[in-house]
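Aim 2 progress update. The chain analyzed this quarter is reproduced below.
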Amino acid sequence: MTTLADVTLAVARLCAEIADGTATGGSATTVVDTGITHPNDFWNNGTIWLRSGNNIGKSAVITDYASASWTWTFATLTLLCAAGDLYSVCSAAYPRSSLIGAINQALLEMGKVTTKNTSLTGLATTWEYTLPAGVSNLTRVVVGVSPNYSINYFWEEVGGKLRFANGYQPQLADEIILYYAGAHAVLALDADVVNAMIPIEQLEWLGALYAMRARINLVGGNDTRLQGKIIEATQRTETLKTQFLPRFGPKDPRLAAL
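Predicted structure tokens:
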């Protein structure tokens, strides 16, 4: 599975120069690397990603970089960073919030994916259920109690309702799992997972394109290197669009009239 932290780091690599290293020390709010030589405050407001150790898969906004002690400081992480932890850092040219915003823009442009909703529960002798908010265009309905699930083919979607054929209703306390073509959920936390049907390479390049466009709007169009990167990302995203099939499956057949 690919998480938001994975994609933000990948997008940052496409946009900017990333420093990778191995910590020589740390705490819940710091990473130290005595092998790094950058000016004081060089990394302020940038992003650090932890790629191993107690905090693997997490990132944080750098609040201070002290060159005298080779130390990055950031908001408290859950556990301690320590010597031997692998990390990556990016400058404030591409802030963490900007990377996340660009990735969510890319997901929106990439369109609908097969999405799962598990909020409905079977009721006794009930054949009609109101669909949860935001759920429509159902493609599959699965019913049962873990680990015994089965696809239900005897349903229809009418006016925001899910209707089962007589004799094929869920039983009391059954889980009703709905699959539908919907927008990808907004990603906000490092551990948020990208839907498995999203082509990751396409997401990374499109996210990088949005991030670089935001950057050039901020600094102006005189950065020829950035302009070149935008041209490359544009060409790459157009190529990738033609390589992937739709990101949601066909609707299951209905096997009974209602």
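The mean pLDDT is 94. The first helix runs from residue 4 to 15. These observations will guide the mutagenesis experiments scheduled for the next reporting period.
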